[in-house]
Amino acid sequence: MSEERKNSVTQQAFWAMVQRDLLAQWRDKKEFIFRVGMLPLVLIVVYGYVLPAIGLLPETFPTQMFAGMVGMSILITGIHGTAIPFTMDFNNMHEIEDRLQAPVSRNVVAYAKMLVGIIEAFIGGLIVLPISLIFMGSRLQLGMTAGEIPLLLLVLVLIALASATLGLLVGTVVKPPQIAAMFPGFLMPVVFSGAIFFSWYALDPVPVFQKLVLLNPLVYANEALRYVMTPQIRSMPLGYSLLGLVISSVLMGWWGFKRFHAMVEGDK
Known about the structure:
The chain is an all-alpha fold. The protein has helices spanning 3-27, 29-53, 61-93, 95-99, 106-136, 149-171, 179-192, 207-212, 217-229, 238-267. It is elongated and about 65 Å long.
């Protein structure tokens, strides 16, 4: 097979896999919207609307948490969108075996799953925007200008990529019986240590915890968004945030692909 023909077959197989997964998600779109929107809705209503309205949190708190809600929605949605299909395909439906029969590199199968997770991650970020504007719009004070939109897009792409690589890793580690424990055992610690409700610098009084949260990629995601969207709030320098996202993606991607290849060899 010529190199040109091989590339054509690879592209066709890749997009066929992506389209099939997106079609499956479209059929379950109501469940997807409910799953993606429920956690942000609860957090925004309670922390962004009710508590400031009754005076238990300052009026500026919605601005503080807005970037964190966007980052959380993108990362968590991308993790779920990549991890759960991997877990189910490998352990229950064994659909992954059919895809591995395609005359393409096995990495193409993983890339297709990750791209679907990235697309879902962006949709998750879009879903949180109207919820935020409805309940926090009058209290939000964003300092982003039109000239910073390219930088914002770069940050969003890096967050979505980090979500897909972490989803790949989680999906090759978690077994179906463990899925129910994934939210309280994995996602909840990621969410509440991810600098959603506070900036990283606000943790100065607790230096041990401030250093521990640097293991959480959500911290770099939210700090980068906070730097761009609410520059009036002191945040981690953008260079450090972007570097943290890149390093997290590389490490999680390397480990995830290593696990993926080990599971493929095990299936064979």
